[in-house]
Amino acid sequence: MPGASESRNTLILDATIAQRDPLRYTPAGIPAVDCTLQHTSTQAEAGGERKVECELFAVAFNRLLFLQAGLVYDDCKPVPETVGVD
Predict the structure, then answer these.
(1) Among the four residues 16, 32, 42, 50, which has the most C-beta atoms within 10 Å?
(2) CATH of the domain at 46
(3) Structure pTM?
């Protein structure tokens, strides 16, 4: 029986960012970016090769957002809550 570390599901995604929307903030003040990822590859199947293409929607939050943009996360702080004007 596999150990606890061996029983995790793992996904490795090899894709490029095809489209990236402008930076936005969630209602909780967390920085987020919506993006479209594209993958294209050739896979061996039944003695031949098959071209594989897929496109999927993703949302990058916090540190992941800044890593993929090549930015420093510590330079961005969540937006403080806004309050009504009296």
Answers:
(1) 32
(2) 2.40.50.140
(3) 0.59
